[in-house]
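Tutorial, part two.
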Amino acid sequence: MTWLRSALLTVPTLVGGCFTADLDPTLAGVFACDVDDDCPSAMACINEVCESGDPPTVAINFPEDEQRFEITDFDVGAQREIEMTLAGTLDVTEPGGEHVFGEGHIEITVDGRVAGQVTSGALSGVLPFPVTIENTLGAHRIAARAIRNDGTPYDHAGGTATRLFWVKDGATPLVGIKQPWPGTEFDLSKAKTGVEAAVLNFTLAPAVMNGDNASGVGHVHIYYNDNITDCLANPTCDKAYLNTIVEAGMISTVQLPDSPEGTFNLNVVLRNIDHSLYLFPEDGGGAPVIDTIPLVRKQDD
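Running the prediction step on this input gives:
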């Protein structure tokens, strides 16, 4: 097991000499690891070190999952403020100093930009943090990430919280990718991911190749393409979707194409029941309904 890499410790004696003693395998923050199974029982592999005790968590209480905000509350394109609230078990401290397991601050990102840091307060109560978003129609995203005192992000699942919410007009169909999260890193080859998409003002239903289309009813096609608009206009490219999503809450597994290092786009597109491209408005002159996020491809270390 990996934690046995550091099985011996050299310590000084009272007379200045040295002796070698077995190191207690239950000591936290000492043994290297790659996964939880590399650690002794009841310990978890966090930031490549076996840690004991409950890992610190961060959660977003508001906005709620798929919360809806009216676009008419502000001018279109203007900045609007949302007071998000946070919870969790992280012991929030000012940045800097040596790493102490369970301590750290919180980095807030909004629609892909760093919006600020939470460096004080108690997550055991309601901890507010105001953020601004652009008042534009569609899916918006907030993330809160626990950062250790030494500036390294906690890398366990509970150390990051994400939330997708909507700015809506009450009529326009919308689609938004809930997972993977924008900026997620994948290996260059043999990379798979689950894709989950939410819709608003649209009903998901299984595809029927020769079915009769109904207004605002259909499914989602998943693409890996850097110019999805041009792709949809090309019949060959349009047919090269990776998978479909046909019901709410469905997680569709896709195989990402082998890739060089870099940033590439994952796209979801609304389709009619018969797989044809859904356009809105439906009565002519409509446009595709699309959501796109960046994914990062890196060489596996």
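The longest helix spans residues 228-232. In part three we will examine how such features are distributed along the chain.
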